Amino acid sequence: MLKLWKLYQKSLAVHPVKTQVISSGLIWGAGDVAAQSVTHLTTTKHQHQLSDEDERFRINWKRVATTSMFGFAFVGPVGHFWYQGLDRFIRLRMHMQPKSVRFVATKVAVDGILFGPLDLLVFFTYMGFSTGKTAAQVKEDVKRDFLPAFILEGGVWPVVQVINFRFVPVSYQLLYVNFFCLLDSCLLSWIEQQQDASWKQWISSFLDMREHGGKDQ
């Protein structure tokens, strides 16, 4: 493991973008395997009289490849330039002291307001189109899944990012985030699997009530 870490550090120093792209793709692929396992366990637990064939867990390698491609094509390159650019902008343009409370708080806020929603939107849209859904179907899925995922993640990611921006060097921040995405992909898979669950409908109806209430005033 130590040799692997040293190899990663050397590769990151020589080929930073390529290394971030490859590691992101591999980690997101591993995360999807974990997500499929979680989905299988929750499905079999709530369904009775399943055959031995249905109870056996089989990895959907096509889905793993699709999710890995999201890591390769989006998370890796975009994440690399995002964390580098965010750090540079707040340090040099906003003139904040690195690792200060204001510095970390500003980073967490900007990341949560800009990159977090974009990442979710791209993920749900990409996964929808990759399964052959139409634009209208993808739009409905995004409407159904985006806000529940954003609200649930909103209670976790700020804490993760406070630690990231305070203690982790910029060049390793995407790697740190990607390992938490192993857990996050399980959450996103579970949210997607819930389809039109009652708690999702409650969130949607609550937001609709607030929207209509605001218009009536």
From TrEMBL:
In Swiss-Prot or TrEMBL terms, this protein is called Transporter
> Which residue windows are transmembrane per the record?
64-83, 103-126
Against Pfam families, the record matches this protein to: Mpv17_PMP22
- Please give, as recorded in its UniProt entry, the membrane topology of this protein: Multi-pass membrane protein
Name where it mostly resides: membrane
Q: Does the keyword Glycoprotein apply?
A: no
Upper lineage is: Eukaryota, Viridiplantae, Streptophyta, Embryophyta, Tracheophyta
Q: According to its UniProt record, where is this protein located?
A: Membrane
Q: Which family does it belong to?
A: Belongs to the peroxisomal membrane protein PXMP2/4 family.
Alphabetical keyword list: Membrane, Transmembrane, Transmembrane helix
